Amino acid sequence: MSQALLEIDNVDVSYGAIQVLHGVSLHVNRGEIVTLIGANGAGKSTLLMSIYGTPRVGSGCIRFAGEDITHVPPHTIAKRGLAQVPEGRRIFPGMTVEENLLIGTVSIGTAQLEQDREAMFSLFPRLKERRNQRAGTMSGGEQQMLAIARALMSRPKMVLLDEPSLGLAPKMIANVFAALKQIAAAGKTIFLVEQNANQALALAHRGYVLVNGAVRMEGTGAELLANEEIKKVYLGGH
Fold first, then answer.
1. What is the mean pLDDT of residues 138-165?
2. 56 C-beta neighbours (distance < 10 Å), count
3. What's 89's DSSP letter?
4. pLDDT above 80 for 37
5. Alpha-carbon distance 35 to 55, whole Å?
6. Rg of the chain on CA atoms, in Å
7. φ/ψ (deg, to 5) at 131
8. 60, 86 in Cβ contact below 8 A?
9. What is the mean predicted confidence (pLDDT) over 86-107?
10. Rounded distance, CA 10 to CA 61, Å?
């Protein structure tokens, strides 16, 4: 039986006096792709960022690989094997593709740099073509590929992705999701926050629906895709 790699247990998060998350509980098992969908402003990104310690959880508990990480500093969380691909990519625009990938190894050192870099170039051939190019001069889709590759360079047990399809052309979205499928097939665990519910649920083993900071529904990706309410609210027009 799959063991939960990430467990979020009854988590509340507030920004000052405004409570954004209300008693959120969910889990991600080893080897799974789990997605969190919801309208803009539902609290999806807040939940993902709170796993990494900013903002801090007000109450409740977050466990990763069986350890309580609720109050652990972000750099320590990275060393434990949890990598984050933040919304907006946050690559280093003045550095080349290769230099950005090198930064991904900070938490583990460079012993496997050559091997892992070649694996990234195999996963994202476009990055190989652009290896000496400054990252800021690439397209949004190429920068998203670089952000994912940089996260994978730390050899994480699990990858958190925040809105990877945001602002990308449809063809690039298809490329990014195809890569995520390959990454999962290679044994990585993925927790994906995504407004593109159609793509996310088609990819995911399981999904959760966040409404006004609380989990309203959960099920397999196929169950949620077939759910009439979800079709009406989240899948219309996609």
1. 95
2. 10
3. -
4. yes
5. 20
6. 17
7. -55, -30
8. no
9. 93
10. 7
Q: Which two tokens stand for residue 205?
A: 């083993």
131 burial level (CB within 10 Å; 0-12, 13-18, 19+): middle
SS3 for 166? coil
d(CA 152, CA 219): 28
Amino acid letter, 183: I
The Cα 83–Cα 80 span in angstroms is: 9
Token reading at 161: 């992705």
Q: Is the pLDDT of residue 237 over 90?
A: no
Judged against a pLDDT cut of 70, whether residue 181 lies above it is answered with yes
Asked if residue 103 lies in contact with residue 92, where contact means CB atoms within 8 angstroms, the answer is: yes
| Block residue for tokens 């994906």 | 192
**Helix (H/G/I), strand (E/B), else coil: 77:** helix
Per-residue DSSP letter, 55:
S
Angstrom distances, CA of residue 125 to CA of 84, 120, 121, 232 = 22, 8, 5, 37
**Mean pLDDT computed over 218-222:** 97
Confidence of residue 236 (pLDDT cuts 50, 70, 90): low
User: Are 69 and 44 contacting, i.e. CB atoms less than 8 angstroms apart?
Assistant: no
d(CA 58, CA 207): 24
Query: How many whole angstroms separate alpha carbon 144 and alpha carbon 171?
Result: 13
Smallest CA-to-CA distance from 34 within 73, 60, 6, 13 is with 6
**Do 147 and 97 touch, CB atoms closer than 8 A?**
no
List, for residues 113-131, the tens digit of each pLDDT value. 999 999 999 999 999 999 9
Q: Are 166 and 85 in contact (CB under 8 A)?
A: no
pTM exceeds 0.90 for this model: yes
